[in-house]
Design goal:
Blueprint lengths: L1 E4 L14 H4 L1 E8 L21 E3 L7 E7 L5 E8 L7 E5 L1 H7 L7 E10 L30 E3 L5 E8 L2 H15 L3 E8 L2 E11 L2 H11 L7 E4 L3
Parallel strand pairs: 2-6, 3-5
Antiparallel strand pairs: 1-8, 1-10, 2-7, 3-6, 4-5, 4-7, 9-11, 9-12, 10-11
């Protein structure tokens, strides 16, 4: 479900205590890194190594520890998120080769898995905190805040740049307002549900081709280094 967002109304929201294990569980396909990626720099700035238990995920903060279970044989491995991806529809995580070996699906190439957050460690860039969401994901409102609401359901095509995921609506409003003011681009909000919890993904732009999306991503990179390109419709 996607909505075109202009500005949205929100009133006082207080602190929310969140348990990481209760928030994030997914099921889908897992893949693993090809040999050519060994030694390359990941989105977090770390070098990818086949021997390390790491993985790529589209939205989880860098440093998050995730338990991945192969649903075919019930084998599990714990990996640390340090990269972005996979960018193939239906795949939810891209594992290091050593992690895939522990799950015993190297010969198959793909596996049906479940992934569960087991800990939010300190983010590689120093933003996340163990066992609770980052402070930027908590709604801190000292007094009432007012936003004008003007939203409509849309069916977007082309490409956009996803800059983040939020659970608190007040943060969604603030970031969306800032983006519209700074970049003069359409802001779209994708609403998804993860383990019965709503997550709001902010996507900037509705561009006709990937080249234009790459240009926008470069503009956004300094302020939103974890942003990535998404295709609304393939």
């Amino acid at each position: 479900m996607k909505f075109k967002l202009t500005l949205i109304v929100i009133w006082v929201i207080g602190f929310t205590t969140l348990n990481a294990q209760d928030i994030f569980i997914q099921r889908g396909k897992a893949s693993f890194y090809a040999d050519k990626f060994d030694g390359r720099t990941t989105a977090s700035g770390e070098k990818y190594k086949h021997s390390k238990p790491t993985a790529a995920h589209l939205t989880l903060p860098f440093g998050t520890k995730v338990k991945v279970t192969n649903l075919a044989n019930d084998l599990s491995v714990i990996v640390t998120i340090n990269d972005r991806g996979p960018y193939v529809q239906g795949r939810i995580i891209d594992l290091s080769k050593s992690a895939a070996k522990k799950l015993e699906f190297i010969s198959q190439g793909l596996a049906d898995v479940s992934i569960q957050v087991v800990d939010y460690e300190s983010d590689i860039k120093g933003t996340s905190q163990a066992g609770r969401p980052d402070m930027k994901d908590l709604a801190l409102v000292e007094k009432n805040e007012y936003y004008k609401l003007e939203a409509s359901r849309v069916d977007p095509h082309g490409y956009g740049v996803q800059i983040g995921s939020y659970m608190e609506l007040v943060n969604l409003m603030r970031v969306s307002e800032s983006l519209k003011s700074s970049y003069q681009k359409q802001v779209t909000v994708e609403v998804s549900i993860l383990n019965k919890v709503k997550v709001y993904k902010i996507i900037v732009g509705n561009l006709s081709n990937r080249s234009k999306a790459e240009d926008l991503k470069r503009r956004l990179h300094k302020e939103y280094p974890d942003s990535f390109i998404i295709g609304f419709k393939e």
